Amino acid sequence: MDPSHDFLAQYKAITSKLKKRFLRKPNVAEASAQFSMLAKELQNRECPHYAAFVCLAVCRCEHSVGNPIFESQNLLHAAKLFLEAEQLDHELLCPGYSEHLQASINAYHDCIKVHLDHDQPALAASLYLELGQALRQLGRVREAIPHFLQAANLHRFCALDHVNDLTLVYECRIAVGDYDGALSALTQMQVICEKQGVKENYERIGAFTAILRETEITRLLLLLYLKPPPIKLKPEHAKLLDRYASLDTDSVSYIEEDLYLMLQSLMIAVNEKDEDALSKLEKDIWPYLSGLQNNILNRIVTDFRSYSFLVPYK
Question: Of the CATH numbers 1.10.10.10, 1.25.40.10, 3.40.50.720, 3.40.50.1240, which one belongs to the domain with range 1-153?
């Protein structure tokens, strides 16, 4: 028998039990249990989208009796099942309008709302991150950014989680070519690390020190790539560029001295438009950088070879 036909018949039979009758209340608990069994059966038959619809019926039952725990559990289950159906279509290159993905996003948002209504921001943030990563894996990087930002906002009272969420934001913005947005997120990360990454004795916390190193290097590379005119240069960015504009400036504690000197040399090579020095520095500096940072450095060198720098830093 066609599983979808069987599913519809069972679904209608269970739904009919929820209709109000004279002097008789519907047995919501029984209907919820039967919907759960049907959802499990459909999942075993590898019909994730049908199973997801039945999970939503369970959610409605649990909501009607005021059970937020089981309501959120089934909303999340439905969201993951819809996502599974979307991923399957994506792998098989099936044409469509991403209806399963939209249903998954709606279920995630409903589940997040339940958590927020019951003062569970940590759970809500984890779901924003989960949804953002799922969108990222499906190639919808730009759509993932708002969900990472929502997670960062919910994690604003936990500095390390806040910074980790912003890391996902800047990585996605670079992936879609939004370098100004990536620079803004990195600057925000730098401020958080400098304010909250220090102990009472002013000693830097290890995890924040590593993040400071990565954010400073990436910010410098992005500024060299973007070449903002002095009139539009923000004070914090001008301060960063001044730090690397001369070899006379002392290094910072969270960047090793060899790398610091090479970054200063890179800045000077850009200012002096020294193509030979820039090419040599690219070879020397790449082992110290992450893949993303090397990608930005390569763009700087490519732009330098293709176009003259209109606004040198001084």
Answer: 1.25.40.10
pTM for the full predicted model:
0.89
Report the 10 Å Cβ neighbour count for 13. 11
Q: Report d(CA 118, CA 153) in Å as an integer.
A: 17
Query: Residue 310: which residues within 8 A CB-CB, separation 6 or more?
Result: 227
Cα separation values, 278 from 238, 302, 309, Å: 22, 11, 13
Matching residue, tokens 């990222």: 136
pLDDT (0 to 100) of residue 307: 56
Q: Name the nearest CA neighbour of 212 among 176, 278, 177, 260.
A: 260
**pLDDT averaged per 10 residues in sequence order, the chain, 314 residues:** 65 82 74 91 91 94 91 95 92 86 96 96 97 95 97 94 96 95 95 85 81 94 91 90 83 89 91 84 92 92 67 46
Domain chopping of the chain, boundaries: 1-153
What distance lies between CA 288 and its chain's CA centroid?
A: 25
Distance CA 226, CA 158 (A): 31
